[in-house]
UniProtKB/TrEMBL annotation:
Residues annotated as signal peptide: none
Keyword terms of this UniProt record: Endonuclease, Exonuclease, Hydrolase, Membrane, Nuclease, Transmembrane, Transmembrane helix
Parts of the chain that traverse the membrane: 24-41, 48-67
Limits of the Endonuclease/exonuclease/phosphatase domain: 81-282
Any Pfam family matching the protein: Exo_endo_phos
Superkingdom: Bacteria
Gene Ontology MF annotations: endonuclease activity; exonuclease activity
Organism: Carbonactinospora thermoautotrophica
Protein name: Endonuclease/exonuclease/phosphatase
Length: 292
C-alpha cells in the first residue's frame, strides 16, 4: 500500500489505470485504516509495522491539507465556478444558490438553452456584464475589457474561452474551461482525449503573458492526477493555497474527487472553498483573490 501511494506516478496509464487510481488517491487511506485495525486485532508486529509505514506515507502526502490555514479576510475578487449539469432538474435553484455566494464573477459550464435562460434570469440584474460561448458562460459585476476569444482545446467546438475583465484593482484574464472527460469503454478507462485537451489548454496558458490570470472550470482532472501537473507547474491551485480538506467536488451527493478547479497566476488566494450541493452533479468552487 505504501508503494502504491508513494509510487502512484509509476503506475502504467494503459486503459486509464494510472489516472483512475490517482483520481481517488486520498481514498487509499480507507484500506490503510482497515488494515491497521486488522493488524491490531491479530497483534502482528510485522503487519503493524507495514501498515504504519503506509499510514505515515498517506499522512505525509495528504495530512497538511487537512490542517486549517490562516486566511486573510480582505480580497479584491471573488470567483465562483459551477458545472450546471445539462440535465439539471432545477437550474433556477442552482442559479439562486450561486447568486447567494456573493461572487464578483460567476463562471458556468455545461449549459443548455434552458439552463442558460434560467441562469440569466437570476444573474443579469446583479451581473450586468456577461459572455457566452456555446455551453459556457461568464457573468461579471465588472466590465469586460475587450473581446472574448475561444481557446481551441481540440474538441471541435468551443469548450474553453478567455475573457478580459476590468476590475477596480486591474485587468484580469479569465479562462472558463470544460475539458474532455475520462471515458469508460470496452477496454476500461480512456484518458487520451482528456489529456489532449489538457495539453492544449496548458500550451495556451504558457503563451499568455498576462500579469493576472485565472483559470476556472470543470477540468475533469483530479489534483492528484499525473496530468494535472501540466497546469500546476504554471498556476497555483486555489484550494491548495487557501482551502481546507480535500475539496472534493464530484459527485455532488457524495464527493469523492476534485475535478472542478480555480487556478491563478499573479494573484494571491485569500480563501478557497467548495459550496454546498446546488442540484447539479458537481459542487461549485469559490475563491477570494487579491491582485498581486
Amino acid at each position: 500500500m505504501a508503494g502504491t501511494l508513494a509510487g502512484h506516478h509509476l503506475l502504467p496509464d494503459r486503459y486509464g489505470l494510472g489516472s483512475f487510481v490517482e483520481s481517488f488517491l486520498p481514498w487509499l487511506g480507507v484500506p490503510v485504516l482497515l488494515l491497521l485495525l486488522v493488524a491490531l486485532l491479530r497483534r502482528s508486529l510485522v503487519a503493524l509495522a507495514g501498515v504504519l509505514v503506509a499510514a505515515l506515507t498517506w499522512t505525509v502526502m495528504f495530512g497538511a491539507g487537512l490542517l486549517p490555514k490562516k486566511r486573510a479576510s480582505a480580497y479584491d475578487l471573488r470567483v465562483v465556478s459551477q458545472n450546471m449539469l445539462d440535465g439539471n432538474p432545477d437550474p433556477t435553484g442552482t442559479a439562486r444558490a450561486l447568486k447567494r455566494a456573493n461572487a464578483d464573477v460567476i463562471a458556468v459550464q455545461e449549459l443548455t438553452s434552458a439552463t442558460y435562460r434560467a441562469a440569466a434570469r437570476q444573474f443579469d440584474e446583479s451581473y450586468p456584464y456577461h459572455e457566452r460561448w456555446g455551453t459556457l458562460a461568464v457573468w461579471s459585476r465588472y466590465p469586460i475589457a475587450g473581446e472574448a476569444q475561444p481557446v481551441d482545446i481540440g474538441i471541435g467546438w468551443v469548450r474553453a474561452f478567455r475573457v478580459p475583465l476590468s476590475t477596480p484593482e486591474g485587468r484580469v484574464e479569465l479562462y472558463n474551461v470544460h475539458l474532455a472527460s475520462l471515458k469508460v469503454g470496452a477496454e476500461g478507462f480512456e484518458s487520451g482525449q482528456r489529456d489532449r485537451t489538457l495539453r492544449r489548454l496548458a500550451r495556451a496558458i504558457a503563451g499568455d503573458r498576462s500579469r493576472h490570470l485565472v483559470v476556472v472550470g470543470d477540468l475533469n482532472t483530479a489534483a492528484t492526477d499525473r496530468s494535472f501537473r501540466l497546469l500546476a507547474e504554471q498556476l497555483t491551485p486555489a484550494h491548495e493555497a487557501g482551502g481546507h480538506g480535500f475539496g472534493f467536488t464530484w459527485p455532488a451527493a457524495f464527493p469523492m474527487t476534485r475535478i472542478d478547479h480555480i487556478l491563478v497566476r499573479g494573484l494571491t488566494v485569500s480563501r478557497a472553498s467548495v459550496l454546498p450541493s446546488t442540484g447539479s452533479d458537481h459542487r461549485a468552487v469559490a475563491a477570494d483573490l487579491t491582485l498581486g
